Amino acid sequence: MAERLIWDYVYAYDPVPQQTPEFNKLHKYYENLHLERLTTTKCTKCEKISWPPRSVCPECMSDEMSWVDLPEEGSIIVVTVQESGAFPGFQAPLIFAMLQFGDIRFIGKLIDVELSQLAPGKKVRLKVETQYDGRVLPAFTLTGN
Question: Does the pLDDT of residue 105 top 80, yes or no?
């Protein structure tokens, strides 16, 4: 019975958004992740590239958006570790970093790395994480450079 309650909790407080056209206007982002492509939106009117992906441009309020690929390689700006409070289904400790891909900066989860390997300026690439139910989340790992 306790196991059932845990999964009910995960379902009620799902940290993984619905990734289909029926539930998410930006489902193309997840489709691209399935193809191991890190993408975001670009306004076709003012050419503003937004992160996270958006359906309306925050600069000019146009809803004419297109999808663009971010660079394949990014870099670490700063790293932090979350040692407690992970959502059910995620193993602590979780390693996060402020990342830079081109002109875009965002916080991303790092996987398959040792904390001692990480430093500002180290190069990372996308490594898609597939969840228990087939949905995908972006994660990042060192490039080896």
Answer: yes
Cα separation of 102 and 27, whole Å? 23
Place of tokens 């040692």: 83
Cα dihedral 20→22→24→28 (10° resolution): 50
Predicted model pTM: 0.82
Q: Retrieve residue 60's tokens.
A: 């000019």
Q: Which pLDDT belongs to residue 8?
A: 46
CB-hemisphere CA count at 13 Å for 32? Answer: 16
Q: List Cβ neighbours of 65 (8 Å cut-off, separation of 6 or more).
A: 41, 42, 43, 44, 54, 55, 56, 57
Rounded CA-CA distance 76/13 in Å is: 30
What span, in angstroms and rounded, lies between the C-alpha atoms of 117 and 113?
Answer: 7
